[in-house]
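Thread title: Can someone regenerate the structure for this chain?

I was given the following input by a collaborator and told the matching structure tokens would be attached. They weren't. Posting the sequence so someone can regenerate them.
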Amino acid sequence: MAGVAVSTTINGDHVEYLCQPDETLLEVLRDRLGLTGAKEGCGTGDCGACSVIVDNRLVCSCLVLGAEAEGRQVETIEGMAHGDRLHPLQQKFLEHAALQCGICTPGFLIAAKDLLAKNPDPTEEEIRFGLAGNLCRCTGYDKIVRAVQDAASVMRG
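Best answer:
Regenerated them for you:
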């Protein structure tokens, strides 16, 4: 099978890669580009562990072909922190102990970032709805919701 040449932007950096036509964006990120933050939890778009933002839209990278990233803006968990300075969501997840095994955490953080970009002052119900596409088997969801509430408050100033 011939490879597909892709030119895209990932976390603000111009990136070019070759991928197979049937290769998912998740596979490209992890296996070709070494961006292993997004996790494969289910491979069917049901768990949210592989969530990334493509052109300001939250997507499961296991459901997007790598070739579809052509000309797009892709944001992954690796782009959230600025050097050694954690994003407020990352900091609040730590402070609220909103993570345990870590498989779902990158997806929750990306989904929360997307939510707060669209709604900087969400209610608890809106947070729960905004994160409904992400599953966690370890923490329950209360600590995650509290961390997002707290981060939203910090981000609003």
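The helical segments are 25-32, 88-95, 105-118, 124-130, 142-156.
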